[in-house]
What does this fold into?
Amino acid sequence: MSELKIEKSVRRGRPKRSEAERFQTMAWYNSVSRYMGTNSPYALECQIQPENIIKRHGKVITSRAWDRYKIGARTPQDGLLKDEKKFSAVVAAERHVPMSGDVFRNPIWHAMKAKVLRFDEAVNLIVTLKPATAHLYIDLSDEMKCNRIDSLFQNMGCPIWIERGDYFHALDHLAVNLIFLRLEAKIPSEGVREGIAENIAKSLGPISQSPWINPFFEEMFDWLERNVWGTLFDEFYTTQKWSNARGWRKTIPDWLIIED
It folds into this structure.
């Protein structure tokens, strides 16, 4: 596979926000706005973090943070804040839209930010997924707790099943296969690479229809092609339907999407 272009970090001053962080924030914002029934940053802040809205001299003043979340210009805080009377943006939103926390914390963002992952790091990321997905890649039994790396290695590239339009599980499966591509150890065989290519292709269609990622899916897939999977599809993916496209666009005729 060709050499990938990896984003370079800025050493002096404030670290440059990565594209992965921008995609993560926009996906999270969309997951919140979709289920809250409004795309207005002001309306969302009023409902989710009203403590940040103040009135002064008859004027309403907001933090403007949600305006920046919408375009991915600022990453929301997660976890507990020092002020126990306030919730971080992610936790506050999760109280209204429980699945929004899963979107923000999905290991796909960690895999996109990382340059390389050790096997133990990969295992630790995958086990954060719901068991229904994680068990397809790792033996989660107590008996195999010390040998999960072995089970991960054995299941790499094995065929997966994703229902048409199931963007919930598709995001998880894409995360796992991106983790495989970030492993420090070389993927062992062409057969495994073919399996990974096929599994990623199965996930792309549902994700492209996801209300979280649909608004920017082409930009995100192009970024993944430049920085993670490279020429994987040109080298290891065989289309079921003929296409003269290259890269991830080669997989579009095979996408598991729900037709209008």
Q: What stands out?
A: The CA atoms of residues 138 and 150 lie 8 Å apart. The first helix runs from residue 19 to 36.
